[in-house]
């Protein structure tokens, strides 16, 4: 019995650690309370609650997409955007993330990266900068790129329109 309890606690601890191991947590924990940044954070509990809502007007595939997410976070700033972009991009472990899309024009730069195991995408990261600001956005969970792209389009999230043609290499 002790062995079962120990294994269960280890699984729970690993799941919590995995859920907190996204790019924004690692790279921008120090900026989450910084007044120069706008922060959006949707917790795993909120996604679980959302899965219980009766969504008559929402297609079932989008509801399924939301129920598979564990967290969604955004940090953005209009203050020295290129400085924060360079810092964030330099901090990303390129061995851990696969780059899907780069859209660069003049000084504007949008990048989409994933962290995956086999065919399962665990994290979708968007890092973007333009003259108006810097944004780091992260979806964590069991991610389907087509459905996330559709969800982002419905929510009108800036930069996510570049994701609609993304396919894994």
Give your account of this protein's structure.
The chain is an alpha+beta fold and 169 residues long. The protein has one domain (2-163). The chain is 36% helix and 33% strand. A six-stranded antiparallel β-sheet has the order 1-2-6-5-4-3, sandwiched between helices. It starts with a helix and ends in a 14-residue tail after the last helix.
Number of domains: 1
**What is the oligomeric state here?**
single chain
**Radius of gyration (Å):** 17 Å
Q: Which structural class do you get from the secondary structure elements? A: alpha+beta
pLDDT averaged residue by residue: 76
Secondary-structure blueprint of this entry?
Blueprint: H1 2-19, H2 23-28, E1 37-42, H3 44-50, H4 60-67, E2 69-77, H5 81-91, E3 98-105, E4 108-117, E5 120-130, E6 133-143, H6 145-155
Antiparallel strand pairs: 1-2, 2-6, 3-4, 4-5, 5-6
Short description:
With 169 residues, the protein is of the alpha+beta class. The protein is built from six helices and six strands.
Structural key phrases:
36% helix; disordered N terminus; six-stranded antiparallel sheet; 169 residues; alpha+beta; 6 helices; globular
């Amino acid at each position: 019995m002790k062995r079962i309890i120990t294994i269960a606690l280890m699984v729970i601890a690993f799941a919590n650690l995995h859920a907190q191991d996204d790019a924004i947590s690692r790279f921008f924990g120090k900026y989450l309370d910084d007044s120069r940044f706008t922060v959006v954070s949707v917790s795993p509990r909120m996604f679980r609650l959302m899965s219980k809502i009766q969504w008559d007007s929402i297609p079932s595939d989008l509801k399924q997409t939301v129920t598979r997410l564990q967290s969604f976070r955004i940090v953005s700033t209009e203050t020295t955007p290129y400085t924060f972009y360079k810092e964030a991009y330099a901090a990303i472990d390129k061995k851990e993330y696969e780059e899907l899309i780069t859209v660069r024009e003049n000084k504007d730069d949008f990048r989409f990266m994933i962290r995956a195991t086999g065919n399962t995408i665990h994290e979708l990261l968007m890092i973007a900068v333009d003259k108006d600001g810097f944004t780091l956005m992260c979806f964590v969970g069991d991610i389907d790129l087509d459905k996330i792209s559709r969800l982002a389009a419905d929510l009108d999230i800036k930069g996510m329109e570049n994701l609609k043609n993304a396919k894994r290499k």
